[in-house]
Write a structure and sequence with these properties.
Order of helices and strands: EHEHEHEEEEEHEEHEEE
Number of strands: 13
Distance between the termini: 41 Å
Helix content: 10-25%
Shape: globular
Number of helices: 5
Radius of gyration: 17 Å
Oligomer: single chain
Length: 298
Amino acid sequence: MITRTRAVLAAAAVMILGAGAMPTSSAADVDTSSHAGSSVAVSDVEDAAAASNAAASANLRVVQHNTDQDEARWNRVVRLAESGSWDAVTAQEVCSGWVTALRANHPAWTVAFHEQVAKDDCPGGTKGNAAIHPGAGSAFDEAFDVAGEGKNFGIACAVFDKGTHRVHACSTHFTVYDDNAAEVRLRQARRVKEITGDWIGRGHSVVVGGDLNTTPTLAALDPLYKHPEGRSNGRFIEAAQLANNETRRVGADTVAGRKIDYVFFSANHTPLSAGGNLTYEEPDDGKHKILKATTTLH
């Protein structure tokens, strides 16, 4: 049975996790985002200055991929984690049986999993979101309690230390088939903002990787994006913004001619001025690209 809310101790660290800010006001899912220029906002500079007082800089490397329930593609991103070159992998449409096998094969790793839906043709009988850190840490998952498609939408996070930083690397997947999909995605983004807000408030670094099933400029992502300031009311800088050093909500297509896959970094330790790199790898079947994002925590 799919559990609604749980926090699972995975390895060495135990931490108390909670919810944060209150939801933002409603908005229609329409493309009215500002395409303002690329200057670094004063608030980002202040974020970086405050963070630098508490922690030394460290490189952070994240892989994001929707596997489309394809075990070969799951194994491909697991091999990236095994390479030692990546700090976290966030993946969606992952069969629960694959997660069970991964935990058995790598008992010292931190592997978080949120079961999203029953799936008879998936090993283990369910599929959902996985977050992996190839090392010690703790695992967290929570349901959004946002109705949509009859699925148990939620988030899974691998929590670990990177240098002097506490990092929550989270995986999520927003609705695509709901009759009111735009509004449901907006509510799901608000839940991500709420869940992660407390961690950011404590000075932790948060990464959110996922297939969000909406394009960058639409209002459903307003609760996540920090820039362009105004309608954007979130606390995250997206990997494409870091890589391009611009505030516009843009990015290369990730599947079927659209950008719907993302890696977001919390602005408290990764302001726009941190910069970064974002590359895309095309799977053999031409479905969701593998995103590889790197940046520096300040």
